[in-house]
Amino acid sequence: MDFELSEEQRLLQESVGRLLTDRYGFEQRTAYMKEPGGFSRALWKQYADLGLLALPFAEEDGGIGGGSVDIMIVMEAMGRALVLEPYLATVVLAGGVLRHAGSKQQRASIVPKIADGSLILALAHSERQSRYDLADVATSAKKDGAGYVLDGAKGIVLHGDSADKFIVSARVAGKQRDRDGIALFLVDAKAKGVSIRGYPTIDGLHAAEVTLAGVKVGAEDVIGEPGKALPIIERVVDEAMAALSAEAVGAMTVMHEVTTDYLKTRKQFGVPIGHFQVLQHAAVDMLMAMEQARSMAMLAAMMAAEPNAVERHKSIAAAKVQIGRSGRFVGKTATQLHGGIGMTMEYKVGHYFKRAMAIDVLFGDADHHLAMLAKMGGLLAA
Amino acid sequence: MDLRFNDEETAFRDEVRSFFKKSLPENIRRKMVEGKKIGKEDIVNWQRILNKKGWAVSHWATEWGGTGWSPVKQYIFLDEMQQAPAPSPLQFGVYMVGPVIIAFGNEAQKKKFLPRIANIDDWWCQGFSEPGSGSDLASLKTTAKRVGNHYVVNGQKTWTTLAQYADWIFCLVRTNPESKKQEGISFLLIDMKTPGITVRPIQTIDGSREVNEVFFDDVKVPVENLVGEENKGWDYAKFLLGNERFGIARVGLSKERIRRLKELASIERVGDKPMIEDERFRTKIAAVEVELKALEMTQLRVVAAAKNGNGNKPDPASSILKIKGSEIQQTISELLFEVVGPYGLPYQPEQIEDDRVNESPIGPDYAAPLAPTFFNWRKISIYGGSNEIQKNIIAKAILGL
Fold it and tell me: What pTM value is reported for the model?
């Protein structure tokens, strides 16, 4: 039982932290948001140079062979900096599908391009009606010779407007919410029949609605066994939730620091407002919410590689509940304790608040996961 | 980073678990599970079993009977004990005055008191709070005047838990009324049989009589019963209150109570199905389970920090253990009250006090202790420094506000 980072992990933490401290000031971030796709290609290249884009992939595929704790370290730092780049979309989500289900050739052709920053990927799975049900897939894949033809529409595809390639889920068999019958396909963003409507999200990141109309894919672009994709998607989404938990902890840490500083410097009635007990207790409540979230983000990271899928999912779902609740609470309280200045676009707290809210909503909010956890009998055996 | 216990720790956990399974008397275990009153005999009986095994004062220095276990093992021991569920060794002796005597007492005091604390030959109680000194403890007014080889103690203590059984009381008393309030306090050990001491019970809202008022009227205490130096008692009190880091969250106990809650929720019915399948109720249980899991992880972070020798600087994680631990215990006690519905209402103190009652209970046989426990457990966020005082401490010590 140990919560210490290894020497290598400490070095990773230091180098990511240093890069983001240098390159992700509030004004620099505002400038990156105005670039195409709403993020910095220059920084993306720097992540590649630092090895961050290769981090979770196997060495034989051109990766570094890092684990979920390494991803936690990177995501927490990215949460602190409120990073805009498509790390989750490309490395964790699409990369996760390739790691767990990609063929040797698929990994050999794609992983090196992710690692060197030349290829951006997005996972096009959720749909307008699916909400948080990962099995709800209406997009169809019909056999066409050796390949398939895809028809349907995907929604809130994270960084879909910047993706060079999509990993698309579509149904080869079964009814819309059946667990069986889902398959995964690699689809080029420029392929005939793919249309992409990109947009910024409330947290300053980007997503897209992606329509597929008679999109042809070859046999070589089928990932894994057709019809058996749901466990892969569930595993990758669990890993993404663990990563988001760490990101949320980074964001909460900054909100808490900034708010505590503000309480020490802002004066009203002739004293720093941090002298008032009602505000002190609110700041302590924020601290507790943040520390409980940090504990659960650590649990999520340590359970992400758990072979028992039910145990893995329960722990990570529990983490997502805590993260969602803590993130909302810390964000709301940080904004409230700042008063008017916290409401302004030019002050950083509100941006962190928006990201914390977005993280709660992604892949199932706290209420969703709590209900699912309850349905599964909770965490402790009776 | 690794959540798993190593082989040695796992073997230790199994050893501890099987010891509790084998050695905890069945009637005590059953009373713990059912939430019935654990009497003096139960605590003495159980602590002596533990002491015979060498585990009653596991966290003490080895020369005084401690085990020398690592922080991880200490944590496992407490967690398993709470889940057994077994009563704790008597807090006031084993976790409070014992460590103070070890750290600040003289050799004679150590030899006289420590073995008797370990074997619960003396029952100790705590004389800190006074009617006018609750959260503002340092304002205490009970005085001890030096007269020859004695202190003469006058004043009143209150909220003194289980003083009705006590052989000894450790007290904070004012020895210097002239100096600043924290600087004139001393730490005194007083024999409860000394003339001039009166104990009067206070009944709490649940109907139980756990706490008392203790009055001191010209009570003569030999000077050799002063711990450490005169007027340094406040430092020793802070040491005492800051001492308990591993057990205070009572994660193991809450795990055990949640299992009990699920057990009762699968017996109780709502409409045509068990409560445990009621969406609203099972979601409430899941919510507290998530909170508890987070607290357990927070607790493990604190334990791991202690293991790595980082235990001396204030860890933000440790400060939240008491607040969150108390909130979670209270929530669970509320759900246990809720689970029996209107059968939480019949007030049957005899069903809680004595497990050999002849009369059959009104309603389900598990119902009687649930509402009283809910009311009794409101104390958890009040004693040992209320949660609001804890927040003041965190705001100052950790946030620098």
Answer: 0.96
